[in-house]
Specification:
Largest sheet: 5 strands, mixed
Number of strands: 11
Distance between the termini: 45 Å
Helix content: 40-55%
Strand order of the largest sheet: 6-8-9-11-10
Structural class: alpha+beta
Shape: rod-shaped
Number of helices: 8
Length: 399
């Protein structure tokens, strides 16, 4: 329960940090968009002044021509189209016109290429709100169309570019931290495993010597046989721990035989009200590269978990089959099941639904199958109150 509480608290902190990050990003985008709107408003005011100067220049006889022209000429950033009543373009400013082809280089700026370009821009601008009507007199009207300046356009995209950069940075930082964390966990995991194997070595050697002594003293051979079986079992467990942290040696093994061998020890030790059945098609028996001691650890963990989930009463069905590329194992029990939201969480270190447990069994199973054997494991299906099916996939060598 301690590990589970730590896992839950970490999960809550991650959710809190994510929520805070999203709030900060939302505030950043909001303020940036507000700035863009303010700048767009200022540009419209500038265009209104430009339009007023144009009207004053045409209608007033005593206008300060130099001053009005300076206003009109002062616009060097905002693309502008001045259009008459008939829709013809009177003047354009600050548009980046396309380079004419060699065949039309002798034509002036109002060549067909530029006219088509400006006509297309005008067509788009007619559907926008960036326009100002200019009433020259009762019979003459003009319309000023304008686009957002390059500065405004860049500013409009700027928060999203910053957001992308921020997310990229957070992603890199997150994966870097995860990698460091996993490396640290691996070192602790490997160190603990090696130390456990080392510590088990001495008492196992002593037990072997004691069984030999008891046998020489005439103790019942059946008792000695049972003791040797358990001592050998301890040796197997120590050997398993010693293999953690380095790529174990694998041998070509037939999958059906590997499963039966892995379950041989468990068959005599599961409760009598639990039935363990293996469904293996001999025609599907295929070769896989396995480290048999670690594979036995996988099958025993899954079997023990199934027995615990059924509380000593129910059935475990193991289906062994294969396709063109993989051997498939399905371990199905009739236990209490797993909620769908926890299908992936069950493989996380420290996650457990047991009152007593460290939550490391399925983490170890996943590591053995995926890292040491290049396979996959997942919760194929589960229903609370009815049972769970685990699916294992291991690359096939030959049939």
């Amino acid at each position: 329960m301690k590990f589970r509480n730590i896992y839950d608290s970490r999960r809550i902190w991650k959710m809190v940090l994510l929520a805070v990050s999203l709030i900060l990003v939302a505030m950043f985008i909001y303020f940036s968009n507000t700035l863009v709107k303010d700048l767009a408003k200022q540009e419209r005011e500038r265009m209104q002044i430009w339009a007023d100067a144009t009207r004053e220049l045409v209608t007033s006889n005593d206008a300060n021509v130099d001053f009005l022209l300076s206003i009109i000429e002062g616009n060097r950033n905002i693309p502008v189209l001045l259009v008459d009543d008939e829709g013809s373009i009177i003047e354009q400013r600050n548009f980046k016109l396309p380079e004419p082809a060699d065949s039309v280089k002798m034509l002036d700026e109002y060549s067909k290429v530029n006219k088509d370009f400006l006509a297309n821009r005008l067509k788009k601008l007619r559907n926008s709100s960036n326009k100002i009507d200019i009433e020259i007199d009762k019979y003459t009207h003009q319309t000023l169309y304008y686009e957002d300046s390059n500065v405004l356009r860049r500013l409009a995209y700027y928060p999203y570019i910053q957001l992308a950069v921020m997310l990229l940075f957070l992603g890199i930082a997150y994966f870097a931290l995860i990698s460091v964390k996993r490396a640290e966990q691996n070192r602790v995991w490997v160190g603990l495993s090696k130390e456990t194997a080392h510590q088990l070595g001495t008492p196992i050697s002593s037990l072997m010597a004691w069984t030999q002594m008891l046998e020489s003293m005439g103790v019942d051979k059946e008792i000695i046989t049972d003791m040797n079986t358990d001592v050998h079992r301890l040796s197997v467990i120590a050997d398993r721990f010693s293999k953690i942290g380095s790529m174990p040696d694998k041998e070509l093994t037939f999958i059906n035989e590997a499963v039966e061998s892995s379950l041989a020890y468990m068959r005599t030790r599961i409760p009598k009200h639990v039935t363990l059945t293996v469904h293996a098609d001999d025609d599907k028996n295929c070769g896989v590269m396995l480290c048999q001691p670690l594979f036995e650890w996988v099958m025993e963990n899954l079997t023990k978990n199934a027995v615990d989930a059924m509380e000593g009463k129910g059935s475990i069905d193991i289906l062994v089959t294969s396709d063109d590329k993989h051997a498939h194992l399905y371990v199905k029990d009739t236990g209490k099941g797993i909620a769908r939201k926890n299908f992936k969480n069950v493989f996380n270190p420290g996650f457990t639904t047991k009152k007593r447990g460290w939550g490391l069994g399925l983490t170890l199973v996943k590591r053995i199958i995926e890292e040491y054997h290049g396979g996959k494991i997942c919760v194929k299906e589960s229903e609370v109150g009815k049972g769970t099916t685990f699916a294992i996939e291991i690359p096939k060598i030959k049939c």
